[in-house]
Amino acid sequence: MNDIDAPLREPLSAEALEARLRSIGEQRYHHRHPFQLMLQNGELDRRQVQAWALNRYYYQAMIPHKDASLIARLDDPALRREWRSRLVDHDGEAEGEGGISRWLMLTDGLGLDRDMVVSTRRILPATRFAVDAYIHFVRERSVLEAIASSLTELFSPMVIGQRVSGMLKHYDFVSAETLAYFEPRLTQAPRDADMALDYVTRHARRLDQQQAVLDALIFKCNVLWTQLDALHHAYVAPGHVPPGAWSDKGAADDR
Amino acid sequence: MNDIDAPLREPLSAEALEARLRSIGEQRYHHRHPFQLMLQNGELDRRQVQAWALNRYYYQAMIPHKDASLIARLDDPALRREWRSRLVDHDGEAEGEGGISRWLMLTDGLGLDRDMVVSTRRILPATRFAVDAYIHFVRERSVLEAIASSLTELFSPMVIGQRVSGMLKHYDFVSAETLAYFEPRLTQAPRDADMALDYVTRHARRLDQQQAVLDALIFKCNVLWTQLDALHHAYVAPGHVPPGAWSDKGAADDR
């Protein structure tokens, strides 16, 4: 059993809790996933990058639902205001702005039909199940756990940098414009993560609260890891695209 | 696009609706899944059969939650009584009886530690996400869709027969006693499926209702298929066990 899987025996200081959260990220965040490494090392073909962008769109599209569910549960107007910035980041101030629109610039650039992407009907069922698990988690668990589950953003800058530089270097079908999604995330994610980390270390003082926070971050790492597992199984290993998913041989509309 | 994925254009007769449901099962049910074929053809090793039984335990354990959620939403006492038989099948009349207990005879027989199995803490995250998606579906969708999502039982007898005979033939670590779960299912599943099919064909008359019923069965086939995809990726392809799951090399308590 990994250290990070062992139950806590006594409450940790704020510093020790943060260290343990960072250790979970080091071991469980998807920067270690084989599919992520293949993506940034130029080992995927165009179809595989398309499949990644298509499926990840569903995650991007559901993030504002997740954040709005959380805001709906917060009693403190100041905290609601802070969290509201995430809605702005993803939905923008006007049509064509925000993270979801920028993600569609990527899927456009990869030659995927925008209506097919937005419909989400050709994503892997495993993508939908994992993302929906995150939505349900934020709706149903405590506010502390819901906020803690966002702490994967502590680790996203390290993967975004490598992903963008690796994709630009290796793939001639990818341009800086089509990767416009990632640039703002390099400042948004640390701001969001600092705020969530501050909340968590101030509010998780008891043993059971700290355990719940650690488990919430492990859960969220699993949500991300499982999405890449499903992509890897369906589109790297030959012959495993599930029925009805994009690029299934029985299907005809794979734009 | 498969025929079964094309939207309905006009309402079907009850017979045509049933035929279409059966066609979905023929194309999407997990009797076609490579992992299922390997299981019944004796191509898995003991560790892979253990992983299957461990993960499938979570599905078995959650079924009464799913059925109780549905009963809680039914207005008709007669229908609640009929559906209650599913609770009896899975939970039994007394300690040690019912489908969940019989599934634990299988995991016992395969040498898995019962406490570890019952804790479900070493299952694949993808198993949990897929099964929980089914639970949420039954809680949140219409009663008609919830009942339709149970229609995979129409197809289970065909897979149970092959699974039991194949496993007994090929695996010396499996006995008829450890497969006791399956025998009652050969009569329970058709009884349950007939009842659900009767309800669905009587209540789904409008185009939108029939489309929802077909989509519910596709959803449920995806729930089952995704579980086998995750097992296949983690335990057949080498080196893909996700962090923290049973048989992860970083973990020490793999009984």
UniProtKB/TrEMBL annotation, chains A, B:
EC identifiers of the protein: 1.3.3.11
Keyword Oxidoreductase: yes
Pfam families for this protein: TENA_THI-4
Catalytic activity, as annotated: 6-(2-amino-2-carboxyethyl)-7,8-dioxo-1,2,3,4,7,8-hexahydroquinoline-2,4-dicarboxylate + 3 O2 = pyrroloquinoline quinone + 2 H2O2 + 2 H2O + H(+)
Superkingdom as given in the UniProt entry: Bacteria
GO molecular function: pyrroloquinoline-quinone synthase activity
Alphabetical UniProt keywords: Oxidoreductase, PQQ biosynthesis
Residues annotated as domain Thiaminase-2/PQQC: 19-229
Annotated Gene3D superfamilies: Heme oxygenase-like (1.20.910.10)
Top-level EC class: oxidoreductase
Involved pathway(s): Cofactor biosynthesis; pyrroloquinoline quinone biosynthesis
UniProt record similarity statement: Belongs to the PqqC family.
Annotated PANTHER family: 4-AMINOBENZOATE SYNTHASE, PQQC-LIKE PROTEIN
Function: Ring cyclization and eight-electron oxidation of 3a-(2-amino-2-carboxyethyl)-4,5-dioxo-4,5,6,7,8,9-hexahydroquinoline-7,9-dicarboxylic-acid to PQQ.
Protein name: Pyrroloquinoline-quinone synthase
Source species: Chromohalobacter sarecensis
Lineage, uppermost ranks: Bacteria, Pseudomonadati, Pseudomonadota, Gammaproteobacteria, Oceanospirillales
Encoding gene, per UniProt annotation: pqqC
